[in-house]
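hey can u check if this looks right to u? its 215 residues, i copy pasted from the old doc so theres a chance i mangled smth
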Amino acid sequence: MTPTLSGLRIVVTDDHAVVRMGFRLLLEGAGGSVVGEAESGETAIAAWSEHRPDLLVMDVSMPGIGGLAALERLLARHPEARVLMLSAHEDVQIPSRALRAGALGYLGKHASPDEFIRAAQTVASGKRYLDAALAPQLAMAQLDGSTDPSRSLTDKEFAVFLQLAQGRSVADVAARFHLSPSTVGTHLYHIKQKLNAGNAAELALIAVRAGLIEV
């Protein structure tokens, strides 16, 4: 049976306008109503607060605080929010952290349109949905903690690590997460200790090797 989104109000979040348009066409073609769009984590939170949709579809990698931090901030304020996270990355750290943070669903952007609609329908109904291609990798990652050095980081450290690995300064990260520079500096110290990294270039290399950022 073809999944239907009839009657569902949806907000889509991605920093690329063309991608948002693709999401809109697919979702509305399945009967859903896209009531808002956002291009960053911060605007996604604002859009959810304004529209109170049945579903928020949100990309992981975006300017500003990014999808993971936005997810954490949104659910801290609105635990009832139903969020389907999307990502082009094939790593297992991001989906495991997204699900742990409270996302009901996670789907790779390699998914077919039918699977995207199925995931949207499932999450909007309050049920969990995990990309079938990622499930075996997530299961193996639970058994083998050595697959990714960033597994040793706390969720907050991981969020800061992703920002720093992309070349952002301590001051920039502090502003994005509404933290003091000294707090970010403390996180950076612990990140370097845990990952055995001496500088920002080594942090970037670790992130690239783990598939967490693109070069």
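Residues 181-195 form the longest helix (15 residues).
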